[in-house]
Amino acid sequence: MSMKSKSTSELKASIHRVEEICKSNKLGLTEIRKQVFEIIVKNNIPIKAYEILDKISNINNKPSHPPTVYRAIDFLIENGFVHKLNSINSFVGCFHPNAHKECYFLICKKCNIYQECCDDSLKDRISKTAIHNNFVISNTTLEIEGHCLDCSQK
Amino acid sequence: MSMKSKSTSELKASIHRVEEICKSNKLGLTEIRKQVFEIIVKNNIPIKAYEILDKISNINNKPSHPPTVYRAIDFLIENGFVHKLNSINSFVGCFHPNAHKECYFLICKKCNIYQECCDDSLKDRISKTAIHNNFVISNTTLEIEGHCLDCSQK
DNA sequence: TAATATATGTTATGTTATAACATTGTAATG
DNA sequence: CATTACAATGTTATAACATAACATATATTA
Ligand SMILES: [Zn+2]
Ligand SMILES: [Zn+2]
Ligand SMILES: [Zn+2]
Ligand SMILES: [Zn+2]
């Protein structure tokens, strides 16, 4: 199972990708937004908003406040750079080549490691379900909780 | 789209079903648990914990407290009678014949109406994804947010 | 009855998220 | 350049969601 933490080069690439996308789309990747993104992607497990808040406060040597963090998160989610895992109120970076919003997640309840997936056939089936119900999708949450190989063997 | 509210007979049937399952499995369906279940299923849109709290307080003519409601909800979820919609912090009753835990939801962001689905091929694909990643599933959250037919036409 | 387990009551607090308004920075317009 | 408009951030306060901890009550069962 490829539930390992990201390499330094993968992190660099993902940060660089976001910078490029923002530049070409004229999105304001401000200092705080960048800091929040880096904190999220450098964490190898899903991170909570108030953990980000603590880290931001430390980095800048002054207390930050919740709205600062939540606004940055909103920006990052809107642009597909970050996903929220609703089942655990946590955030993860999107490591797929061109940031998007339709990822699925396996989340280990024991060690919190996670795996981002992007299964087209799954996406197709969900689309069909929606069409069949005359439903227009704006956002899909597919989170699979359970235990990873390591944790289920212990 | 069958996103209509439940008929009185459907409600009665779902309450009766829960009573029978509890009786045959020796689960303590206490007064409060029953009240909470009825409040949830009689609401035709997903309901929030503190809304349940208000209703319980009114029914019993005395203030209830959050733990009372959350404990009842926990019981109902554990036994597959109720689902939590993580994307909107709300609860819905399970209207499937034999209460279970693997339902999917279409949720209209505008009018809050919802549709409970149970697509086996979707379930299969999710299982395959899990197996492929050596992952043991304990719980799946699949919530599709968007707009229902009525709301997308307006 | 006494012991045990299950469920509920109660108080307090922890956690997650947003409203509202002030301030600052930046870019376009006259 | 000054003015205006807009985007982003700072700040205070509070709303919304959820649980810890411990006391009390109720039901089983030894
Ligand atoms: Zn992604
Ligand atoms: Zn694990
Ligand atoms: Zn169900
Ligand atoms: Zn609707």
Can you put this structure into words, describing what you see?
The structure is a homodimer of 154-residue chains. Chain A has 154 residues and is α+β, with helices and mostly antiparallel strands. The first copy, chain A, has a single domain (8-152), classed as Winged helix-like DNA-binding domain superfamily/Winged helix DNA-binding domain (Arc Repressor Mutant, subunit A, Orthogonal Bundle), CATH 1.10.10. Helix content of chain A is 47%, strand content 19%. The first copy, chain A, is built from six helices and five strands, in the order H-H-H-H-E-E-E-E-H-E-H. The first copy, chain A, has helices at 8-24, 31-42, 49-60, 66-78, 120-132, 149-153; strands at residues 82-85, 90-93, 104-108, 114-117, 136-147. A three-stranded mixed sheet of chain A has the order 4-3-5. A two-stranded antiparallel sheet of chain A has the order 1-2. In chain A, helix 3 crosses helix 4. The two termini of chain A are 16 Å apart. Chain A binds chain B through residues 1-3, 86-87, 104, 106, 108-109, 115, 117, 119, 121-122, 125-126, 129-130, 133-149, 152, and chain B through 1-3, 86-87, 104, 106, 108-109, 115, 117, 119, 121-122, 125-126, 129-130, 133-149, 152. Bound molecules: zinc ion (4 copies). Residues 83, 94, 96, 100, 103, 116 of chain A line the site of one zinc ion. The site of one zinc ion has 6 residues of chain A, from loops. Chain B binds a DNA duplex (30 and 30 nucleotides) through residues 28, 30, 32-33, 48-50, 64-68, 70-71, 75, 89.
